[in-house]
Amino acid sequence: xxxxxxxxxxxxxxxxxxxxxxxxxxxxxxxxxxxxxxxxxxxxxxxxxxxxxxxxxxxxxxxxxxxxxxxxxxxxxxxxxxxxxxxxxxxxxxxxxxxxxxxxxxxxxxxxxxxxxxxxxxxxxxxxxxxxxxxxxxxxxxxxxxxxxxxxxxxxxxxxxxxxxxxxxxxxxxxxxxxxxxxxxxxx
Length: 188
Description:
Order of helices and strands: HHHHH
Largest sheet: none
Distance between the termini: 22 Å
Number of domains: 1
Shape: elongated
Radius of gyration: 23 Å
Structural class: mainly alpha
Number of strands: 0
Number of helices: 5
Strand content: under 5%
């Protein structure tokens, strides 16, 4: 799972960075009263790549949550079947619940950044500039930078959690192997 997660997280973060760079290169949306076809094309492309980046980053978090749910269930059932200590399951649960705030925070930041991007679109009538005193595109830019940094940090903590959970799974497997050998059962 570590290699799969690392590959997918890397691709999701690259996609986030590509969306960021494309947004940086949009140009001035007010050019020609918002009717510059080149700027509008870049905005449209940035929007689509940004939605793809949001989706890919969210899918990485969902995959990790699914992994922890599956291994947690397996550890619980295996512990019951082989009468193992419940400590294995408790460690797995602590690890799983330890990553949930990061997943939620990353997801919320991704959604907020996308929403601020919609507000920064010159074609929309909504603006936060009068309310917050900050230009809409500057607000979207700041949110994008923070979101990418937070997502990267959360992905690193998730990788460490996968490493810890892998050790828990290996411990359960070793204990099951020991019990099966003691009882003369096949271990293959």
